[in-house]
Amino acid sequence: MRKIEHIGIAVKDLKTSNLLFEKLFGAPAYKEEEVESEGVKTSFFMNGPNKIELLEATHPDSPIAKFIEKKGEGIHHIAFDVEDIVAEIERLKNEGFTVLNETPKKGADNKLVAFLHPKGTNGVLVELCQEITN
């Protein structure tokens, strides 16, 4: 793992939260997109070298909707940039971590992603991210 790629924050209303974070950072989101496979709409903010992803559920049975129902709005995950996501998944499995999706899938912001179960990471959902290069 090379660096923290972003911090994901679950929100009830993306439009309202975008306005809040725009005031906080003094700049608008640089990107918004929907990830149908995850049932979310996302927006991304930069603050210096740091990236924040806001996530709003697009349907009531999405992972974000379930998270908010259980825990309320707040930090949902920490994402780490990796050079080779397949090798990193294998390494982490060998270290005893539970990988939620052993095959990387397309996520937001032009990334391949995989997640580690929070029960094995002190309650923190960990996302692995690799930039998709063509």
TrEMBL record:
<feature type="domain" description="VOC">
    <location>
        <begin position="3"/>
        <end position="131"/>
    </location>
</feature>
<dbReference type="InterPro" id="IPR017515">
    <property type="entry name" value="MeMalonyl-CoA_epimerase"/>
</dbReference>
<dbReference type="GO" id="GO:0046491">
    <property type="term" value="P:L-methylmalonyl-CoA metabolic process"/>
</dbReference>
<dbReference type="Pfam" id="PF13669">
    <property type="entry name" value="Glyoxalase_4"/>
</dbReference>
<keyword id="KW-0479">Metal-binding</keyword>
<comment type="similarity">
    <text>Belongs to the methylmalonyl-CoA epimerase family.</text>
</comment>
<protein>
    <recommendedName>
        <fullName>VOC domain-containing protein</fullName>
    </recommendedName>
</protein>
<dbReference type="InterPro" id="IPR037523">
    <property type="entry name" value="VOC_core"/>
</dbReference>
<dbReference type="InterPro" id="IPR051785">
    <property type="entry name" value="MMCE/EMCE_epimerase"/>
</dbReference>
<dbReference type="GO" id="GO:0004493">
    <property type="term" value="F:methylmalonyl-CoA epimerase activity"/>
</dbReference>
<dbReference type="GO" id="GO:0046872">
    <property type="term" value="F:metal ion binding"/>
</dbReference>
<dbReference type="InterPro" id="IPR029068">
    <property type="entry name" value="Glyas_Bleomycin-R_OHBP_Dase"/>
</dbReference>
